[in-house]
Amino acid sequence: MTKKYYITTPIYYVNGAPHLGHAYTSVAADVLARWHRLSGDEVFFLTGTDEHGQKVEAAARTAGLAPQAFTDRVAADFKDMTRRMNISNDDFIRTTEPRHKAAAQALWRRLAAAGMIYLGAYEGFYSVRDEAFYDEDELTTRPDGTRIATATGAPVEWVVEPSYFFKLSAFQDRLLAFYEENPGFIAPVAKRNEILSFVRGGLKDLSISRTSFTWGIEVPDDPAHVMYVWLDALVNYLTATGYPDAQAPRAAFWPASLHLVGKEIIRFHAVYWPAFLMAAGLPLPGGVFSHGWWTVEGEKMSKSTGNFIDIRPLVDEFGLDVMRFFLLREVPFGNDGDFSRKNLIARTNAELANGLGNLGQRTLSFIAKNAGGVVPARGDLHDVDRALLNMAGLLPARMTAAMDRLAFHEALEEVWKLIRAADGYIDQQAPWSLRKTDTGRMASVLHTLVSVLRVIAILLQPFMPDAMAALLDQLGVAADARFFASLGANVVEGTILPAPVGIFPRFVDAA
Question: How far apart are CA 169 and CA 475, in angstroms?
Fold first, then answer.
């Protein structure tokens, strides 16, 4: 039975250009979307841009542009990053679109009708950079007297202004009960514990409107207020399903299966968003997964220090699928990671060029030269053949178990265990010697290797779609036989194979 799978990235804030961290989240979501499509699920994959708020208004002013012109420019840059990283999103949402404004105002009205919004005045600390409110115990004072948010280092300012409030305090017990009933809702475990601690510490009503700036969605029936950017932004996940139209073509995709977010915005997604949905009487998403941050050579990414990484030049230099692979292979998803050019080159050469690339090239080149350029006959299998084929047969289940936990690096390690085993199998069976002594046995060895390569290439498609498409072409696998449902099929003896071409060249750093 076909299942619906709805996955989202956070919508990226347009106060600056896209960087390595944005690409990381997008690639992870893309791999999951592709994995579920190949599994036979009906997938909806959403990404986009968050374009309102005081910080965007300030960035536009600095750039000498009107806010809409500024957001148009930066949103186009994010769309380009999405295209360059081969992200297979089904929709790209912008919070300045009319459909989103209508959805945000519809949710506001629903919350108001439920008695969950009231007018008051906000007096407290606010960070423009984080677009977040902070309590006194969440602040630190620098030596120069500047107050900053302890968690992020962002400066805060004292704000006094009229504001509408959401009755967040009414949802403390309901949220804790929900977390208890759905232990996998927040991941990884460290973030779940962080959120539990925050909610158990007590929830205060949340300011959800501002009057000190105008770049936002107007509050229904009170245009002097614009919506707090995080209430506005979170609604995007509903907007894309056609909300509030229950008959919209994508309405059935709600609730979302998974929200992927960076660790700095876990509170908004794991506390505020579920509370908004509970108040509105809407189903809650299946889960929120918070991944870590990338540093560069041990330092936090920053334009001022010159280590701010736009991934697109790296794609031009190393190749798209190399970068996609590296991002999810290098660091356990959920942990912080450090980007190092040295590590990128080392992993590219060791696992792609010398590993998978070499396995494919030595197998297919040998077939081209010594087996007529066709898939050899299977013949009688030996125990060593069955052992390798059995390992390949177990790979889908092992990968699925890792993918279900978003352990991308573990899923890839399962593949590379098989690649290393296949390399050892070639060395042990020595088809170059069998060519002189037993061509039937040689054919069985080569058939086994083609079968193993086929499984590897099909399962790696979500990670490296272009490279694996090229490998599957060289293996003679038809386009309609590349889904996971085809994994149990046998390779077809006698299939004519195209001339083999190397997929992953070794990289030599000119520097």
Answer: 60
Q: Checking DSSP bridges between strand 157-166 and strand 206-207, what pairing results, if any?
A: antiparallel
- pLDDT (tens digit per residue) in 145-173: 899 998 888 898 888 889 999 999 999 99
Q: Are 243 and 87 in contact (CB under 8 A)?
A: no
371, part of any domain: yes
Among 222, 227, 191, smallest CA distance to 207 is for 227
Q: What does the longest C-alpha to C-alpha distance in the chain come to?
A: 89
Hunting for tokens 């590590």 — which residue is that? 343
In a domain, residue 404? The reply is yes
Q: Are 425 and 388 in contact (CB under 8 A)?
A: yes
Does the residue 413 lie in any domain?
yes
User: How many Å apart are CA 439 and CA 462, to the nearest integer?
Assistant: 36
Counting Cβ atoms within 10 Å, is residue 202 exposed (0-12), middle (13-18) or buried (19+)?
exposed
Q: What whole-number distance in Å separates Cα of residue 419 and Cα of residue 352?
A: 10
Q: For residue range 210-267, list pLDDT tens digits in order.
A: 998 899 999 999 999 999 999 999 999 999 999 999 999 999 999 999 999 999 899 9
Q: What is the pLDDT of residue 34?
A: 98
* Structural domain that includes position 367: 341-486
CA distance 412 to 267: 30
Cα–Cα dist 296/307, whole Å: 7
H or E element: which one contains 260?
Answer: strand 258-262
Q: Please calculate the CA angle 286-288-293 and round it to the nearest 5 degrees.
A: 160
DSSP string for residues in 335-361:
B-EEE-HHHHHHHIIIIIIIIIIHHHH
Number of domains in the chain: 1
CATH number for position 351: 1.10.730.10
- Position 460 in a domain: yes
